[in-house]
Amino acid sequence: MSAPPAPARFGDEALPHLDLLYRVALRLTGDPAAAEDLVQDTMLKALRAWGSFRPGSNARAWLVTILRNQFINTWRKRTRRPTAIDLEAIPELGDEDNPDPEGQFFASLVDDEVTRALDALPEEFRDVVLLSDLEGLPYQEVAEALEIPIGTVKSRLFRARRILQGQLRRYAVETGIIRPQEEAQ
Amino acid sequence: MTERETGYDCEKAGAELDAFVRGELPLEAAGRMQAHLVRCGHCAQVARHEQAFRDRLRRLSAGCCPDHLKAQIVELLETATGPDAAT
């Protein structure tokens, strides 16, 4: 059995991840003040649980797990989020009618619209996109942070990305950022 | 070896494309994918689409933990465990 981590190591392991924790907290709560409180609560909780951290394992994923659990158990009740869309009710767009198959329009979308589409995803799908696509965590770390199998991370990512891409492409057509196929020719 | 010999086709490339765009494919598999993308215009287009989407999402991740919050947390750790814990 490995020895418990030394208390003095906590700062070394945890403080480098404050930026990421804050960004994730901000995305979850949608409010800067709430995000600050959530990060503080997370660090206190992590410090108290530091004895259970396995030295050499992934501190970043461990901290994100604590933050997310803290959010679910304490904060979610206090913050209001938009109602999640019903994934089953949204038809996926086929590629045959796509006037911008290389996705150049993505770069033209404003943050608000991308954020709105992301926030409308059911939580379990949004969280994999948040950690994987926005924050760049590898599959394995996302799996550890969300405490789900790596295969589930991949399947949720695939589905979430298809839905998001469809939503954003629809928005881009509606607002004239891209023109439908028949007009584009 | 050619793709015909290895059996590497668009279906197999499609299954690995997400990992490729994320830079998570092992070196050998990434090389195989790159060779496929040179030959296959359709998969190359899909790869560019996925990369453009990922690039856009990553732009949402800007922002840092505010300095005052960092200072509060360092102070909090010092109070809880002594000055060494927060260094």
Biggest pleated-sheet summary of chain A: none
The helix/strand order of chain B is HHHHH
Question: What's the shape of chain A?
Answer: elongated
Distance between the termini of chain B: 54 Å
User: Which structural class do you get from the secondary structure elements of chain B?
Assistant: mainly alpha
**Any idea what the CATH superfamily of the largest domain in chain A is called?**
Winged helix-like DNA-binding domain superfamily/Winged helix DNA-binding domain
Whole-number average pLDDT of chain A? Answer: 86
Largest interface: A-B, 44 and 38 residues
Averaged pLDDT of chain B: 88
Q: What is the helix fraction of residues of chain B, given as a range?
A: over 70%
For the secondary structure, the number of strands of chain B is: 0
Structural class of chain A: mainly alpha
Strand portion of chain A, in percent? under 5%
Quick overview:
The complex is a heterodimer of chains A (185) and B (87). With 185 residues, chain A is mainly alpha-helical. Chain A is 59% helix and 0% strand.
Describe the overall structure.
The complex is a heterodimer of chains A (185) and B (87). Chain A is built from nine helices and no strands. With 185 residues, chain A is mainly α. The longest helix of chain A is centred in the last third of the chain and has 25 residues. The N and C termini of chain A lie far apart (67 Å). The mean pLDDT of chain A is 86. By secondary structure, chain B is mostly helical. The longest helix of chain B has 18 residues. Chain B starts with a helix and ends in a 6-residue tail after the last helix. The mean pLDDT of chain B is 88. Chains A and B meet through helix 1, helix 2, helix 3, helix 5 and helix 6 of A and helix 4 and helix 5 of B.
